[in-house]
Amino acid sequence: MRKIGYARVAYPDQNLDTQLTKLLINGCDLVYSEQVNVYYKEQLELEHCLDELKADDTLVIEKLKVLGFTPKKLMEFFENRILPYDIHLEVLDLGINTNTEEGQSFIEVFKKLSESENILLKERTTNGLEAAKERGRYGGRPQLSEDKRKYIKQLYASRTYTPNEISKMVGVSRTTVYRIVKK
User: Fold this and answer.
1) CA spacing 20 to 30 A to 61: which of 46, 49, 116, 126?
2) How confident is the model at residue 135 (pLDDT cuts 50, 70, 90)?
3) Contact 65/8 with Cβ under 8 angstroms?
4) What distance in Å separates the CA atoms of residue 57 and residue 30, rounded to the nearest whole number?
5) What DSSP string describes 139-166?
6) Distance CA 33, CA 53 (A)
7) Rounded CA gap, 128 and 157, in Å?
8) pLDDT for position 165
9) Pairing relation of β-strands 3-9 and 88-91?
10) Are 81 and 50 in contact (CB under 8 A)?
11) Cβ-based neighbour number of residue 19 at 10 Å
């Protein structure tokens, strides 16, 4: 049973030293670190770290934000990369260790929060769509009137104008011109 640490900072002006020191003080046998902004690049060292972890090993991080995940992504990370492989997670600043009952409780609470977040998101989306519908707004591409469709077909059939010229004259994209003519 090994403790393997992972440290990450997002920007060049940030320093890994504090994280590395805390991980080593807390008994990590091996530490992976990287400077990567998760919005722009993959976390290659995290992948190497996960590849190194075996059953009953513990991934140690200083803070949850080191993983760089949204709550939903964090739950997916637990469910797909940690739990199936019997790997434990220790978060130093929160005092969470999934090796303990309290740590297992944390995961259960986090799952419930993640589920409720998904339910809230669905409710908000539904409410927003209903409110828009009441105001006479509908999602999707605005529909062209039948007159405009006929006009586009006539211009195209005349072979006087190119699809680019037709699109500029009518105020639609060239793709729309082709789509209407195709029907």
Assistant:
1) 116
2) confident
3) no
4) 11
5) SSSPPPPHHHHHHHHHHHHHTSS-HHHH
6) 15
7) 42
8) 93
9) unpaired
10) yes
11) 22
Task: Name which of 122-126, 135-139, 162-166 the model is least confident about.
Answer: 135-139
- If one compares 148 and 136, the residue with the highest pLDDT of the two is 148
Alpha-carbon torsion, ordered 82, 85, 91, 94, to 10 deg: 70
- Tell me how crowded residue 113 is: count the other CB atoms within 10 A of its CB: 12
Residue type, 86: D
CA-to-CA distance for 45 and 157, rounded, in angstroms? 60
pLDDT at 117 over 90: no
Tell me how many degrees the CA angle 105-10-2 measures, rounded to the nearest 5. 45
How many Cβ atoms are within 10 Å of 137's Cβ, its own excluded? Answer: 9
Closest CA to 152 of 173, 166, 162: 166
pLDDT at 4: 96
Amino acid at 47: E
Torsion sign over Cα 15, 66, 32, 34: negative
Name the band, by pLDDT with cuts 50, 70 and 90, for residue 48: very high
> Could you give the C-alpha distances from 114 to 21, 52, 162, in angstroms and in order?
32, 28, 53
